[in-house]
Amino acid sequence: MCGRYSLATPAQNDLRARFALGESLEIRRRFNVAPGDDVVAVTTSKEGVARGELLRWGLVPHWAKDARTGFKMINARAETVDEKPAYRGALATRRCLIVADGFYEWQRREGAPKLPWHVTRADGAPFAFAGLWAIWHGPAEQVLRTCTIITTQANARLADVHDRMPVILRDQGEEEAWLDHATPVPVALELLRPLPDELTGRRAVGPAVNDARHDEPDCLDDAPAGGEPAPSLF
DNA sequence: CCAGACGTTGTT
DNA sequence: GTCTGG
DNA sequence: CCAGACGTTGTT
DNA sequence: GTCTGG
């Protein structure tokens, strides 16, 4: 799945050019983005123009009674996203990009603490998750713009760490197709594949990332020696 | 018809 | 809002 | 995803 | 165990 990620790339101007985020959007270096945070995203206006904005991670559908619903909807399964009532409408008209440069997966181990891995593109370049977004009108004048990250089966490169991974669009062409309102849903669904093994990089990291409130560079530090999976005793 | 869910992951 | 289950 | 709470009454 | 908050 995808419950934590990074956008640590220091070159903000490169990000603005690469993803058409606009000049005014504030882009902070993030080492530990968690559900409930405002995240850097690209949506499409009614006129069909891509624009950068901040969306709260955790989709709150327009019919939700309260905003806490979002914590249950941080991911949408690619295999069923066109069937689920909570996502089907968004799939047709509110697809978005969520800008990142890595994500974290926790590997469960017998007799040892869960080991976090930082997964990136093999070349370390920033990328976009395939996402969906929604607008929610709360009590008073409260308006929330929220999003979810689509997940799929993990590729072979990550199979020993976890069985799910977020959908990372492969290139700018796929990103434009995902954002384009003219792309029919069946065509958009074809983009929801695992990143190819040869484009995937991974590195075990230390426990700093475990705490969602800790958003510091040491989240990316190498796992301490002995943190790698020990040979099974049996 | 009304009531209640609407989500994913991992673990038992 | 829309679908499913009762 | 992980971490941390999981409760009520009454008083400030 | 399950829910909430980050």
General description of the model:
This protein has 234 residues and is mainly beta. The protein has one domain (5-102, 126-198): hypothetical protein yedk fold (Alpha-Beta Complex), CATH 3.90.1680. Helix content is 13%, strand content 34%. The protein contains four helices and twelve strands. The protein has helices at 12-19, 85-93, 172-179, 185-189; strands spanning 5-7, 30-33, 38-44, 50-57, 75-77, 95-100, 102-109, 112-121, 127-137, 143-153, 164-166, 200-204. It has a five-stranded antiparallel sheet, with no helix packed on it. It has a five-stranded mixed beta barrel with strand order 3-4-10-9-6. Strand 9 and strand 10 (143-153) form a beta hairpin. The longest helix is centred in the middle third of the chain and has 9 residues, at 85-93. It starts with a strand and ends in a 30-residue tail after the last strand. Mean pLDDT is 94; it is low at 229-234. It binds four DNA strands through residues 1-5, 32, 34-37, 59, 61-64, 68-69, 71-77, 84-89, 103-106, 108, 114, 116, 148, 151, 163-164, 209-213.
